[in-house]
UniProtKB/TrEMBL annotation:
One of its GO terms (molecular function) is oxidoreductase activity. Keywords: Membrane, Oxidoreductase, Transmembrane, Transmembrane helix. Residues 215-349 form the Alcohol dehydrogenase-like C-terminal domain. The chain crosses the membrane at residues 207-223. It comes from Caldicellulosiruptor changbaiensis. Residues 47-175 form the Alcohol dehydrogenase-like N-terminal domain. InterPro entries: ADH-like_C, ADH-like_N, GroES-like_sf, NAD(P)-bd_dom_sf, Zn_alcohol_dh. It comes from the Bacteria. This is Alcohol dehydrogenase. The keyword Transmembrane helix applies.
């Protein structure tokens, strides 16, 4: 089968880092850590697994972080090389183990990519006992090779390949009422819902969503669809992002210009001060800040833009950040929280997987896939797809997907 494979040997990793300084194309050309290859189809690890033929696969920001080697090497023990990239998925079951009675050959399904204790066929660790699957303690054990999610595990394959496998506990059947183009957006919506559900604002709150890529936009969208009446400000780099943020329910959009801190301070009633050395700081700020970027600037400014004892939520996959001043954490007594993947959420008196909640919201409201999915590619054109997905301003790209025939 054809698949885009990531293989980060030490030599190839260093060579790609060096050549990448010349041109970003070296991160995804034939000399890089990723290649389109013909590889064997993955086999069922046990009779509790299904094999899925890929229909659609999305390019996630985490995939771009991987390709451009922005991820910290500290996460390398929690992957198994080489692996097929891709966790945003939609496909059809083509094979199933004898113990799989919940699904049939031909079912159209999505797969929650988290490789927790259930997927590894192990007794549940303390995290999984609490249904906090994204923080599973057994991500290197059990039936599978190391990997936090599908798309970082040698055993399962990934959605950037023609076939992948999944444990029956991961699989969700897609209702006939949900279109293919809607179903492929379950994953990014779940990634937005997880931090939203864990940090849901009060209606009286002032909320800042920093970043208007797919996750930032869906944070705004999901807040409004879940009935949040808080005042929402979004920071958007590009006009097409700003327009969509307003359409999705932001009260206002601020562009990250040189004086944008002053503009934001007026919105939330904060006061700005200029230190004897360095950038401006703030007293006061927003009740909740969702940082959907995770760069040095967004972390620095995002924490200062959070009011005393407010919540700063790091949604973007930050890695090594040099010379980051952490003063606002203790000076403002901030609640600093992270959000990784998806898990299980509390909805009234019920517990529901984030993936299922995302699918339910799409069933209930629909999702404007025609505005969010901006580009479609064949897997043979993966290099062009990466180029477009990583060139948001010039290409006006939001979600880029592979469509398998």
């Amino acid at each position: 089968m054809k698949a885009v494979v990531f293989d980060a040997s030490v030599g190839k990793y260093i060579r790609t880092l060096v050549l990448g300084k010349i041109s970003k194309k070296f991160f995804y050309n034939r000399l890089s850590c990723i290649q389109l290859k013909d590889i064997p189809e993955p086999k069922l690890p046990s009779e509790n697994y299904v094999k899925i033929k890929t229909m659609y696969a999305g390019i996630c920001g985490s995939d771009l972080n991987l390709i451009f080697l922005h991820d910290s090497p500290s996460t390398s023990p929690f992957a198994s090389f080489p692996f097929v990239i891709g966790h945003e998925n939609l496909g059809v079951i083509v094979e199933k183990g004898e113990n799989v009675t919940e699904f049939e050959i031909g079912d159209r399904v999505i797969v929650d990519p988290v490789l927790d204790c259930d997927a590894r066929e192990l007794p549940r660790c303390p995290s999984c006992q609490e249904e906090e699957f994204s923080t599973c303690l057994n991500i290197t054990e059990g039936k599978l090779k190391p990997g936090t999610i599908m798309g970082a595990c040698n055993s399962t394959g990934g959605s950037w390949g023609e076939y992948f496998v999944a444990h029956k506990s991961q699989v969700i059947k897609v209702p006939n009422s949900v279109k293919d183009e809607e179903a492929i957006l379950v994953d990014p919506l779940a990634s937005a819902l997880h931090p939203v559900m864990r940090n849901f604002p009060k209606d009286s709150d002032m909320v800042l969503v920093y970043g208007a890529g797919i996750i930032g936009l869906l944070v705004v969208w999901s807040l409004r669809k879940l009935g949040c009446k808080a005042d929402i400000t979004t920071i958007a780099k590009y006009k097409f992002q700003a327009d969509l943020a307003m359409e999705f329910g932001a009260n206002r959009v601020v562009r990250p210009s040189e004086d944008y801190l002053e503009e934001l301070a007026k919105v939330c009633g904060a006061k700005i001060f200029k230190p004897m050395i360095g950038e401006k700081v703030l007293l006061g700020g927003f009740d909740k800040v969702f940082d959907c970027v995770g760069s040095k600037k967004t972390i620095r400014d995002g924490m200062w833009l959070t009011k005393q004892r407010g919540s700063y939520v790091l949604v973007g996959l930050a890695s090594v950040v040099k010379d980051l001043d952490l003063t606002p954490i203790w000076f403002k007594e901030l609640n600093v929280k992270g959000a990784y993947c998806y898990s299980t959420e509390n909805v009234n008196e019920y517990r529901i997987s984030t993936y299922q909640l995302a699918l339910n919201l799409i069933q209930q409201f629909g999702i404007p896939y025609d505005k969010l999915i901006t580009h479609y590619f064949n897997i043979n054109d993966y290099q062009k797809a990466i180029e477009v997905a990583s060139s948001k301003g010039s290409e006006k790209s939001i979600k880029v997907v592979f469509k398998f025939l």
